[in-house]
Specification:
- The protein has 301 residues and is α/β, with parallel strands linked by helices.
- It folds into two domains: 203 residues, Vaccinia Virus protein VP39 (Rossmann fold, 3-Layer(aba) Sandwich); 69 residues, no CATH class.
- The chain is built from twelve helices and nine strands.
- The protein has a seven-stranded mixed beta sheet with strand order 3-2-1-4-5-9-6, with helices on both faces. It has a two-stranded antiparallel ribbon with strand order 7-8.
- α4 links the parallel β2 and β3.
- α5 packs across α9 and α7 packs across α11.
- The longest helix is centred in the middle third of the chain and has 18 residues.
- The radius of gyration is 22 Å and the shape is elongated.
- It binds S-adenosylmethionine (SAM).
Length: 301
Amino acid sequence: MGAGDAMDETRGMQSGPTGLANREKWAAFDPLVDEHADLIRSIRDRVIDNAGAAPGERMLDVGAGTGLIALEARRHAAPAGVVVALDMSEGALRTCRKRAAETRVPGVPLHVVAGEALRLPFRDSVFDMATGRSVLMYVEDKPAAARELYRVLRPGGRASVYEPINRHMTPARWYEVLDGAALPPGYAEVHEQIAAELRARRHRESPDRALAIAFDERDLVRAFIAAGFSEVKLTYEYVYTEAQRVETKPVEWYLQRAGYAEIARSLIGDDAEALLARFAGMEVTLPQRGKSAEAYLVAWR
Ligand SMILES: C[S@@+](CC[C@H](N)C(=O)[O-])C[C@H]1O[C@@H](n2cnc3c(N)ncnc32)[C@H](O)[C@@H]1O
């Protein structure tokens, strides 16, 4: 399994109505205490290398968490650079500060700053490079985040990010794979409304997970181009594996779990029964998509 798997990046995260508002869930997220630690270190090193990190530079790591990239970046900035680790989770930053104190790099201070990626608390053009790993995936307004990176980088500065791309691997939902023939004539629009409501519910119940699967590499590239970066390079890695488990289940099983019938009845009253009756005895087989996709993006200001 790749470190870019959706289940990797969202595993252990709290779902529920708190969503991103519960910033402190990140305090417990420590990628190096993880079965994929070696893989995560290799991602860290690629992100730093892609940024072209050089001695003496001023480096910003956005969404630094417990310090995976920022702590390592100090070695690249030595003997006389500066590294800033910014995150919105105070708890994660406490761990980052502690680690920084335990592993000082002479000549390279690490400033740990609580802040928001969409409103970076820095003046224009102050950094030579900026990095981020698995952060933009949780930021809804990616163009705004890219604009902030552009603003704080000096002309010629580089932004280097890694994001898992989960959209292609997310299993389809049963109501998305029903072909039109399954629906009674005239019900396609109702079915679409119900499907939209089911998607919206999923989003409300687990906003982070919804965000993590709602974008792909094209959205990242567009965001950095729109922000004004003069050159954007994307390295996209897609590992496809044949489906390991393809399930066929009665539609009724899904109907019960999803609340489809209840939404149908609230939308069209008694007419819903004709729609629901059409599903009796029907089975759907959900296609599984690819296994893992990952994007490394470098942008030059
Ligand atoms: C999956 S963790 C990755 C942490 C770190 N980059 C690493 O590689 O270990 C995502 C981090 O992004 C931070 N984050 C998410 N959205 C943010 C935002 N809008 N502004 C600042 N930090 C954010 C979270 O607090 C969390 O620490």
